[in-house]
Amino acid sequence: MLKLNHKNLDVWKLAVKLVSTLYQITSKYPKEEVFGLISQTRRASVSISANIAEGSSRKSLVERKRFFEISRSSLVEVDNHIEVAIELGFIGEKSINELDEKLNELFAKLSKFIEKAK
């Protein structure tokens, strides 16, 4: 694998860990959601770390920030999917608490990361 700088970023590492958590949680959703909420949640979660990685490889600050902001938007999309899953009763209290903590931590760190981007 490539030895690129984004892999040293805490914000990227948190995003990758969120993917793992969401894959575990969504594996317990009803099977009829495989092409619906499961797929959408997983794809949006992968997009968070992917856009951090892609943004980190861009030369201009404007481009870097654009990809980092897309990453944050994907995080908001994941939050929406989680809210829908909660409403549908797919997620238990323990998972809700775990996700709440992870989503809020990543949102705060990603926001600071965007603000400080050079």
Describe this structure in words.
Helix 3 runs antiparallel to helix 4. The chain is elongated and about 45 Å long. It has one domain (5-116): de novo design (two linked rop proteins) (Up-down Bundle), CATH 1.20.1440. The model has no long low-confidence stretch (mean pLDDT 96). 77% of the residues lie in helices and 0% in strands. The protein has helices spanning 10-26, 34-56, 61-87, 93-116. With 118 residues, it is mainly alpha-helical.
Please name the CATH topology: de novo design (two linked rop proteins)
Q: Give the termini separation.
A: 25 Å
Order of helices and strands: HHHH
User: From the helix content, strand content and strand pairing, which structural class follows?
Assistant: mainly alpha
Structural Rg: 15 Å
Based on the structure given, which CATH architecture is correct?
Answer: Up-down Bundle
Number of domains: 1
Are there runs of 5+ residues with pLDDT below 50, and where?
none
**Number of H/I helices:** 4
Portion of residues within helices? over 70%
- CATH-assigned homologous superfamily: 23S rRNA-intervening sequence
Number of strands: 0
